[in-house]
Amino acid sequence: MPAEDIGDLLSYLLPNSVVGMEFHDGKPVGINPPSTVDLEVIDTEPSMKGATASASYKPAKLETGVTVQVPPFIQVGDKVRIDPTDGSYQERVK
After folding, report:
1. Residue 29: which residues within 8 A CB-CB, separation 6 or more?
2. Taking the mean position of all CA atoms in its chain, how far away is CA 36?
3. For residues 72 and 51, is the Cβ–Cβ distance under 8 A?
4. For the domain bounded by 37-93, which CATH number is listed?
């Protein structure tokens, strides 16, 4: 399946990720992404002392190169759970 047919979802998938495929007449026509993906933060602003999840979000670049909005307490090296259908932050992964 060509990358352009997959669209933005490709930005959330690591090499060798397992996804469901939809076929019509033997040809791939779509994919079913995982409900969440866990990706490492490789670049973001330093965390702020006393920052809470209710504070405003900040951009973070993930290991696949995509940038998402995360809470201010997230740091470089943290793993975060993301919903690949809309790119939203779900939680920090321990």
Report:
1. 22, 23
2. 8
3. yes
4. 2.40.50.140
